[in-house]
Design goal:
The protein is an alpha/beta fold and about 190 residues long. It has six helices and seven strands; from the N terminus they run E-H-E-E-E-H-E-E-H-E-H-H-H. It has a seven-stranded mixed β-sheet, sandwiched between helices. The N and C termini lie far apart (about 30 Å).
Length: about 190
Amino acid sequence: MHIIIGLGNPGKKYRDQRHNIGFAALDRLAENFDISVEQKKRNALIGKGVFEGQEILLVKPQTYMNRSGDSVGPIARYANTSLNKILVIYDEMDLPFGRIRIRDKGSAGGHNGMRSIISALGGSEFPRLRIGIGRPETDNRTAIDHVLGAFSSEEKTQLEDLLNRVVGATKIILTNGISEAMNSYNVG
């Protein structure tokens, strides 16, 4: 079984924030795969389905971002899945808005949600898809204000295309493997 996890903060007040782009991506995947992500299990909303003959489990942790591992660890144990079959989708300030970067493993890179997941899983050898949200445009705005801020009107016009590219990349990961997805999407 493949587990696809979109990171974000639970609750309506966080829904349209940059930090929740992982949730938005997971929602788009759920729509595309026709999977309902409403069952509550292990501090998460989950949905099961099949894509190209492969079982997939979509997961939206309902802990706050920095404690994502509190949900992801138990879900991974429940699903009895190896680390290389777990894909985590999350925001990345060090990438310009709209760029995606796929890796087969790596460090947390300063992302507290990823740090929590790596700790809970006992390793970092799992694929991740980072979605660029860029850095604050002015020095007056802190990183926290930026990630917890809403998308600009210009960013909103690009969100549909961005989320569709995330779906495309995820499908390639599931069907042809992480290497092909990295070769196709890690450009620029």
